[in-house]
Amino acid sequence: MLNFDYHNPTRIVFGQGRIADLATLVPANARVLILVGGASAEKTGTLGEVREALGTRQHSTFSGIEPNPSFETAMKAVQQVREGGFDFLLAVGGGSVIDATKFIAAAALFEGDPWTILTSWGSKVTQALPFGTVLTLPATGSEMNEGAVITRRDIGAKRPFRSPKVFPLFSVLDPTKTYTLPPAQIANGVVDAFVHTIEQYLTYPVNAAVQDRFAEGLLQTLIEIGPRLLNAPSPVYDDRANLMWTATLALNGLIGAGVPQDWATHMIGHELTALHNIDHARTLAIVLPALLEERRTQKHAKLLQYSERVWGITTGSDEERISAAIAKTRAFFEAMGIPTRLKDYGLGAEVIDIVIRQLEAHGMTQLSEHRDLSLDISRRILTAAL
Ligand code: NZQ
Ligand code: ZN
User: Fold this and answer.
1) Which of 113, 138, 162, 277 is an S-S bond match for 244, by CB 3.0 to 4.6 Å?
2) 240 in the same domain as 347
3) Of all atoms in ligand 1, which is nearest to the CA of residue 38?
4) Of 141, 191, 159, 136, whose CA–CA distance to 69 is shortest?
């Protein structure tokens, strides 16, 4: 096992009716800016519940954070924070609202050009406003981690940053708040959580026994509940609860402690979203099967373990079992209603050069757990994903 530090300070407040706990979770004298996306939080009644729980605390709402949140919109919120003297932020939404809130919390106290937060990968962040979250879409794990991804529309750049200063103070996870999600967003959540787990598990063995078993448990849970979530005539509480907690655990640092991590699928996927506005999870479903094919040698031992322990494949040669596991992965995404080929999104070979140029511009020239996934290999992966 590799050396690691593990510290996760986010309090999780889980279960039906827990939004009422904001009454005690948010400091009594806080001046609160609530941050939301489009219309969903208002329409579903979640925003109303949040306001009620805040009681007499001074609060306002900033709305309009878009999916794949933009630097431009976040900077408008920063202005509102500064002008209104807000000292506590409350994100109500999915990964986009939470990621934007992390950036806003850091940018509000940042000296200099806030875009530096992204270009420094977060290393320049020395302080941030405190904030909590109310999660309405289980997918990204942003509710319990220190990462965020922000897009600058003018230059078509989608950039991640990390800082221990942007762990949420608390996150309220009420599975009933997912009942209003359209099936496509449920599918996105399942696939995003699946690929987060894969990025930290499907690398090379380091004898991290419990991290492996834990990751395999998350993958098997998603395989089991994914199709059921899509096909249920009405929402089933326990399935929603299991999805919510699985998605959180997939990216709260626990399964990634002490193991090598890949993240190439995410880095290539981010460029596809920035250029073609494809939902985050869908870009992962395009890239991952092609990447696994390309990286059969580097990931050989873990692909065999994945094949046997996650998919129960025990017969055939090594290469046959690996092929079967990759095929099952692709079929799982497709069964969730998520196409896995660039052509399914109306994209052809003409997009590849541009994606490669963007990867180069963003310093993504040595990806993967081995830092050897060059631009040429990214090109082969994208070609295989056509
Ligand atoms: O904007 P509103 O009206 O709220 O609608 C949203 C949005 O259109 C809707 N929605 C959310 N909760 C709902 C709901 N609709 C009905 N009922 C509800 N309860 O869903 C749509 C998508 O929301 P979004 O927040 O964009 O989705 P998601 O949670 O998948 O977040 C995606 C973003 O997170 C980033 C992605 O890159 C992308 O920008 N990621 C963040 C990570 C992190 N911080 O660790 C890791 C991930 O890999 C990912 O990169
Ligand atoms: Zn993701």
Assistant:
1) 138
2) yes
3) 3
4) 159
